[in-house]
C-alpha cells in the first residue's frame, strides 16, 4: 500500500514545480494560445462581410490574422522595435500591430491586401515578446532583468497583470434549488461559451404549476419548454417525452408542460410563437429572422451556430430538463457551486 504524502513532501513538490515551471507560466501559455489560435477563430466566425456603397454591394472576405513585433512610433514618424525596459522608462505601451488579410470583391474584381487593424498589448516573456529566445547575457546587455518571469503587460509605462477570477465552469449543467415563500424553484443552468459568444441558458421548473420553461437572453419572456423543442425540430410529444427520460415517473412530470403547449402544433407555429416575444408587432419576416438568430446564435452557442445544430440543441435541453425533474423527485441533489 502506498504511503501518504506528508506536508514536507507536498511542499517539496510545490517548490520543484515553481522552480521548473514558474508562477507565470499559465498566463504566458494562455496568451500564446490566444494569439496562435483564438484570434483566428474569432475572425473565422465573421469571415464574410457585405457592404452597400454607392448602390453597389461590396463583399469583403477576412483571411489570416497575424501579430507583428512590439514597436513604437517616434514623434518624427519613424517606426522601430522596442523592448520592455524602454516601454517602462518612456511610459509607452508595449504593443505590436495586428495585421489582417482582406480580400475585396467589387465589380467582379478581386483585390487582396494585408491591413493593420489595431495594436495588441504583448505579454512580457510570451512567444511574441522581443525578449523571447534571448540568452540571459543578451538580456542584461539590453538592460532587462534575466530573471523576470514575465506574464504581465506594460501599459503607459505601468506593469499590468490579468487577475484570475473564480467563475462557474462553462458548458456544464449546474443544478440549483431555490425556496421562494411556500414554493420551490428547480433550475438547470449552463453558461454556454464558444469563441465570440457567451450566454446563460436556464431550464426552470416553478413550484406553482410544475411547468418547464426556458430562459435565455434576448427573449422578453420565458419560453415554454415544449414550444422551444418544437421550434428546434422535435415533432411529436412522444419523441419529446422519450428524449427527456425513459422513466415513467419523470415523464409524468412533463404533463403540465405539454398542456401549456397544446395549441402549438407545428414547428412553424412554435417559431412564430417565439417571434412574437422577440419582435412583437413587427412583420412576419422580421420576427422570423430574429427567431432564427435566437435559435442559432443565442441559444447554446457552444453546441453550434447554424440551423444544422438545432436538433442537437434540443437534445441538450432535454438533458437539462431530465436533471431538473430528477432533482424535483429527489433523485439528484443540487450542485455545490
> What spatial order of strands do you see in the largest sheet?
9-10-11-12-13
Strand % is 25-35%
Number of domains: 2
The CATH architecture name of the largest domain reads: Alpha-Beta Complex
The main sheet comes to: 5 strands, antiparallel
How many helices? The count is 11
Order of helices and strands: HHEEEEHEEHEEEEEEEHHHHHHH
Mean pLDDT: 89
Q: Pick out the low-confidence regions.
A: none
Number of strands: 13
For the CA atoms, what is the radius of gyration? 27 Å
What does the model show?
Strands 9-10-11-12-13 form a 5-stranded antiparallel β-sheet. The protein has 337 residues and is an alpha+beta fold. The protein has 11 helices and 13 strands. The longest helix is centred in the first third of the chain and has 22 residues, at 25-46. Helix 5 (225-231) crosses helix 9 (267-278). The protein has 2 domains: 7-160, no CATH class; 174-328, Dna-directed Rna Polymerase Ii 140kd Polypeptide, Chain: B, domain 3, CATH 3.90.1110.10. The protein has helices at residues 7-20, 25-46, 84-89, 136-141, 225-231, 237-244, 248-252, 255-260, 267-278, 284-298, 310-328; strands at residues 48-53, 56-67, 71-73, 79-81, 95-106, 109-121, 153-155, 158-160, 174-180, 183-194, 197-206, 212-215, 223-224.
Layout of SSEs?
Layout lengths: L6 H14 L4 H22 L1 E6 L2 E12 L3 E3 L5 E3 L2 H6 L5 E12 L2 E13 L14 H6 L11 E3 L2 E3 L13 E7 L2 E12 L2 E10 L5 E4 L7 E2 H7 L5 H8 L3 H5 L2 H6 L6 H12 L5 H15 L11 H19 L9
Antiparallel strand pairs: 1-2, 2-5, 3-4, 5-6, 7-8, 9-10, 10-11, 11-12, 12-13
Helix pairs in contact: 5-9, 9-10
Amino acid at each position: 500500500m502506498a504511503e501518504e504524502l506528508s506536508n514536507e513532501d507536498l511542499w517539496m513538490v510545490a517548490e520543484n514545480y515553481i522552480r521548473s515551471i514558474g508562477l507565470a507560466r499559465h498566463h504566458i501559455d494562455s496568451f500564446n494560445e490566444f494569439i496562435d489560435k483564438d484570434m483566428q477563430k474569432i475572425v473565422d466566425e465573421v469571415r464574410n462581410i457585405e457592404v452597400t456603397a454607392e448602390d453597389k454591394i461590396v463583399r469583403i472576405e477576412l483571411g489570416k490574422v497575424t501579430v507583428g513585433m512590439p514597436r513604437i512610433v517616434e514623434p518624427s514618424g519613424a517606426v522601430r522595435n522596442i523592448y520592455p525596459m524602454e516601454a517602462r522608462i518612456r511610459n509607452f505601451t508595449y504593443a505590436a500591430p495586428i495585421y489582417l488579410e482582406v480580400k475585396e470583391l467589387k465589380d467582379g474584381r478581386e483585390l487582396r491586401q494585408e491591413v493593420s487593424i489595431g495594436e495588441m498589448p504583448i505579454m512580457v516573456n510570451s512567444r511574441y515578446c522581443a525578449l523571447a529566445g534571448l540568452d540571459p547575457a543578451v538580456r542584461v546587455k539590453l538592460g532587462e532583468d534575466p530573471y523576470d518571469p514575465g506574464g504581465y503587460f506594460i501599459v503607459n509605462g505601468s506593469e499590468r497583470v490579468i487577475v484570475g477570477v473564480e467563475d462557474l465552469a462553462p458548458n456544464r449543467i449546474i443544478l440549483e434549488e431555490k425556496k421562494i415563500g411556500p414554493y420551490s424553484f428547480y433550475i438547470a443552468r449552463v453558461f454556454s461559451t464558444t469563441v465570440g459568444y457567451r450566454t446563460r441558458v436556464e431550464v426552470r421548473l416553478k413550484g406553482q404549476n410544475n411547468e418547464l420553461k426556458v430562459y435565455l437572453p434576448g427573449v422578453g419572456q420565458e419560453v415554454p419548454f415544449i414550444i422551444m423543442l418544437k421550434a428546434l425540430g422535435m415533432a411529436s410529444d412522444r419523441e419529446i417525452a422519450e428524449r427527456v427520460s425513459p422513466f415513467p415517473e419523470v415523464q409524468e412530470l412533463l404533463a403540465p408542460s405539454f398542456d401549456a403547449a397544446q395549441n402549438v402544433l407545428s414547428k412553424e407555429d412554435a417559431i412564430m410563437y417565439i417571434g412574437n416575444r422577440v419582435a412583437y408587432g413587427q412583420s412576419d419576416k422580421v420576427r422570423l429572422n430574429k427567431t432564427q438568430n435566437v435559435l442559432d446564435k443565442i441559444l447554446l452557442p457552444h453546441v453550434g451556430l447554424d440551423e444544422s445544430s438545432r436538433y442537437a440543441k434540443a437534445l441538450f435541453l432535454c438533458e437539462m430538463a431530465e436533471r431538473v425533474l430528477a432533482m424535483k423527485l429527489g433523485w439528484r441533489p443540487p450542485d455545490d457551486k
